[in-house]
Amino acid sequence: MINNASDVRATATTRARYQRLAPMYDRMEAMSERRFRLGRQKLWGLVRGPRVLEVGVGTGKNMPFWPSGVELTAIDLTPGMLERARQRAAELKLSVDLRLGDVQALELPDASFDTAVATCVFCSVPDPVLGLRELKRVVKPGGQIILLEHMRSPRAVIGAIMDVLNPLVVRMMGANINRRTVENIQQAGWSIEQAEDLGLGGIIKLISARS
Known about the structure:
Elements: H1 5-21, H2 25-28, H3 30-45, E1 51-55, E2 71-76, H4 79-91, E3 97-100, E4 113-119, H5 128-138, E5 139-150, H6 156-173, H7 181-187, E6 191-199, E7 204-210
Helix pairs in contact: 5-7
């Protein structure tokens, strides 16, 4: 639960930023999506149901890869993004429970999902460890999270450059480019099963972990 005034403000700022970007978001991401498409396919091949939660569903870019025979709940922080996800789900004739929600304060019961999924989400969550702890709460004991994320380069010089550029990128795009996501997952109490490098020298990773 968010109980810090600065975190509340940061979450409101994030929501407003992505609400503003929602109408143009898919066009803005068209080039980078070529790199992430294979990662999305690999991620959803690892998902086990029957109950699956996707946080940060955005405009629904993962929907073409959703496996059949699972019960999907998907949330997003931003009404504008969620409206586009609803449109995409209708076009693809998908059955999904789409909800407005914040991964830092999920309005979901404890131990209610077998798997939780996020793609390029924890770069923009104001308190990523809090969000990951919330996922641990709503995923069943022994359940899994699977994340496709970009993060700070493990290479010292590149990582330092990303640190310098990060404030500008956040203002422009809403995403932090220097998050240490693997460490954040461990800090939240998850046990890492794999952290596969998918490109850019360790910046893009496919991560799975168990509760």
